[in-house]
């Protein structure tokens, strides 16, 4: 009996993931259930004809060659309008509890329809966007294949875009390899940075596979954050003063690629971001060496970026509504 108990304990230990004791888990690879819908969603994601100007696509603000963002303080909308807030990365966004900084969209499907009809972003209407798609025979054929109907509606459009965005995960970072048991994946300095990251309390908000996106927190818990941004956070939805400056915690995955940082995009370096987070959120003054170690660790969070063949969009027809880039 004793030998059996030992054997069971050994088997249990062997079956326990290497990361079981860690507050962060590796990002799993994603296998789409409906490849045809994903392919349609990919085309729609890259198609600027879903905007009034015929120039702005989802990829304009969430560039998949640039960490799923645009590396600007705030995005540029229709007629060169300045966006009100920093564009969060689309990478691993399927792991978020809600979408947008204030969580006003419950999921990727709901989020996908927002920018199309926002006058400060793509400045179109859902009706006109659907008219464009329905004027193109190749698109109608794809909608028929995926949804069984050759006439698109906005629900189909957002379903397809969301299906594509769900595939935009970034597994196999060096940190994930370390979590899975490859003890050579990280350097001594990077491991020291991870230990400091945990010991400081960063994992109270940045935990789980995405290391963020699963809670709302006030920006400036210990000391107020000085910003020129007018964004109110969750208070803009609830009207409650207690929700002012409360934002969805951003993911730290691929963080070295998704600068500038914070909801206002005011901070361009990881070093400054770590310093500010330490002082304002944790009440801790990191020295330069500590900041360097944490930054070294954060750079191990860059995973395998989405890699696919760029979609070739079907041509417009004589019936396709014309873009109006200067109106």
Protein model, in words:
The protein starts with a helix and ends in a 29-residue tail after the last helix. It has a two-stranded antiparallel sheet. The chain is built from twelve helices and two strands. It folds into two domains: 35-166, Cytochrome Bc1 Complex, Chain D, domain 2, CATH 1.10.760; 174-301, Cytochrome Bc1 Complex, Chain D, domain 2 (Orthogonal Bundle). Mean pLDDT is 95; it is low at 7-13. With 327 residues, it is an all-alpha fold. The chain has helices at residues 2-15, 35-46, 58-61, 108-117, 126-134, 137-147, 154-165, 174-179, 188-199, 235-238, 270-282, 288-298; strands at 216-218, 246-248.
Assign an overall shape: globular
* Architecture per CATH nomenclature, i.e. the level-2 architecture of the largest domain: Orthogonal Bundle
Strand content: under 5%
User: CATH superfamily assignment of the largest domain?
Assistant: Cytochrome c-like domain
Question: Kindly state the mean pLDDT as a whole number?
Answer: 95
Structural class: mainly alpha
**Total beta-strand segments:** 2
CATH level 3 topology of the largest domain = Cytochrome Bc1 Complex, Chain D, domain 2
If helices are DSSP runs of H or I spanning 4 or more residues, what is the number of helices? 12
Q: Indicate the CATH class of the largest domain.
A: Mainly Alpha
